[in-house]
Amino acid sequence: MKLFKEVFIANIKELLRDKSGMFWLVAFPVIFVFIFGLIFTGNTGQQSYTIGLVLEGSSVINNNIEKALLKNPSFNIRKGSQEEEVNALQEGKRELVIIIPEIGFDLNSQYDIQILYNRDLNGTANIIISSLKEIFYSIERRLTEQTELFNIRPEAIQAKTLSDFDYILPGILAMAILQLGLFGSFQFLNLREKGIIRGLGVTPLSRSVILSSEILMRLIIALIQTILIVFLGKWLFDVQITGNLLQVFGIVIIGALSFISLGYMLITFADSMESGRGIVQVVQFPMLFLSGIFFPVEFFPSYIKPIIKALPLTYLGNALREVMVGIPAQTTMQRNIIILLLWTLVTLVLTIKFWKWE
């Protein structure tokens, strides 16, 4: 036990001296939290739409319509001729253009209000048109002196809503654990390449002590990463953590063991640091982009989904989202944990079978 303690402390000191290693394990995930947090939580203002307005007359009713449109805080009204506003619409400078004819006081007549919009913005246009209809119906009721049948009394209540960053924060933690497991194995690969592991074979120090102390150090780093990421997400970007830290730590340890085991399995097939980096990157990049840790897997085409279901990072991301922010996944928590444990078992067996001390 004394030897294990000494080797463990030596590993920590070596890691602290490795500035690039500390950056990738600690600073890199923190930078990701800041970048995504500022992107997805920085824009909290009301959505504004630029609307072109063409008035083909200057009657009292036309002027009242213009005033009603200008009062809407969501509308950025740009008034001009039909040719000017249609050209602006075609250039993408307007969401839509409203063309209003000369409207007189003949209440028996019907006036056509023309609305032009880009078909590529069909969803946005529907939202704006719905607001416009309400404005015109309100003006129509005042002109015809109709009594409103219903008295709508809106009352705002505070509800918990999930932002895009609530989805991404657990993904950043999953990415950090992936990096920790895959790139953390490079330290042992470096010792093996330099012949240090072979030299220790003639000393009383067991090789398994070196390996187990490294694994323990990686698990502790994973917990430190978790505390940092959860703290930054909660206190800087107001992410509501629904689960307690013990639950989060449990998922993190299971995920870290899975990727630490995967990392050591990969370096068994590497003869040098260069080949080790190549092997790890071939595994790392598909998992980062296909596991759904940064955007829902529903966005992917159906022929990619079998690959997504085979990746361990998919299930770590699912488990962390559910336990951290309460986002239910397509897979149950039990299945997430079982698949992560299966990945740990399979990679551990392969590591033992092909392991090379020198």
Features:
2 domains; about 350 residues; about 5% strand; 14 helices; 4 strands
Order of helices and strands: HHEHEHEEHHHHHHHHHH
Strand content: 5-15%
Count of discrete alpha- or pi-helical segments spanning 4 or more residues: 14
Characterize the main sheet: 4 strands, mixed
- Taken together, the total number of domains comes to 2
Q: Spans of 5+ residues with little confidence (pLDDT < 50)?
A: 148-159
Helix- and strand-based class? mainly alpha
Helix content range of the residues, please?
55-70%
Q: How would you write the strand order of the largest sheet?
A: 2-1-3-4
Through-space gap between termini: 25 Å
* Mean model confidence by pLDDT: 81
Q: How many strand segments?
A: 4
Q: What is the radius of gyration computed over CA atoms, rounded to a whole number of angstroms? A: 30 Å
**What spatial form do the alpha-carbon principal axes imply?**
elongated
Offer a quick outline of the entry.
The chain is mostly helical and 358 residues long. It has helices at residues 2-17, 19-41, 60-71, 82-90, 122-144, 164-184, 186-193, 196-200, 207-237, 245-267, 273-290, 305-310, 312-325, 333-354, and strands spanning 49-55, 75-79, 96-100, 114-117. It folds into two domains: 11-42 and 163-354; 49-144, abc type-2 transporter like fold (3-Layer(aba) Sandwich).
Outline the structure in words:
The longest helix has 31 residues, at 207-237. Helix content is 65%, strand content 6%. It is mostly helical and 358 residues long. It starts with a helix and ends with a helix. It contains 14 helices and 4 strands. It has a 4-stranded mixed β-sheet, sandwiched between helices.
